[in-house]
Design goal:
By secondary structure, the chain is α/β, with parallel strands linked by helices. It has 7 helices and 6 strands, in the order ααβαβαβαβαββα.
Length: about 180
């Protein structure tokens, strides 16, 4: 009869540990403290004409302002294509800057993949260590930036429900910043 008591105590201990881990404060994603400052944005390599024009505009401005939607992508990612298509549609409805940042090493391949997305400024990241620093382990990796380019929220992966949440958050952000 010792086994049932030991088993019961083990179950209680595991349950308490699990409950404590659920009640613990959630971990902040490293990208929430990412620096989307002028230097970072000007370090990006333009992949299309829209990106070149935007980078020239940024270079001539003292302050770069949002709101901005930044999507990190890979050319092999089918969900990234869906995300960029949704971004292109959203850009036609909302007043915001949408940028796509390729995490691919091959610039030629990234440029070819960027061709259909003429309304979105697509760039190639040239900063080493960015994927590890911001833990960009899942693509598409989407970041909403507020007017001062501070990270408002971070999303990974792609599905309709998540995209609906991104649209809703962007609309609320744009409306709240318009009232300021």
């Amino acid at each position: 009869m010792k086994y049932p008591r030991i088993l019961l105590k083990s179950i209680i201990a595991v349950t308490l540990l699990f409950t404590q881990s659920l009640l613990a404060a959630p971990q902040r994603h490293p990208a929430l403290s990412a620096k989307f400052d002028r230097d970072f944005l000007l370090s990006l390599l333009p992949l299309n004409d829209t990106a070149t024009a935007l980078k020239n505009k940024w270079a001539s401005q003292k302050d770069i302002q949002g709101p901005m939607l930044a999507v990190f992508w890979h050319e092999w990612c089918a969900y990234c294509k869906l995300e960029l298509e949704a971004c292109q549609e959203l850009k036609s409805k909302q007043s915001l800057t949408v940028i796509g940042i390729s995490l691919d090493r091959d610039e030629k391949l990234a440029r070819a993949w960027a061709l259909p997305y003429r309304d979105i400024a697509l760039f190639k990241n040239v900063r080493t260590g960015l994927k590890g620093e911001w833990q960009l382990n899942v693509v598409p990796f989407t970041i909403i930036l507020n007017k001062s380019l501070a990270v408002h929220s971070v999303y990974t992966g792609m599905n309709e429900e998540r995209w609906g949440l991104i649209e809703k958050r962007l609309s609320m952000l744009i409306a709240s910043e318009a009232n300021r």
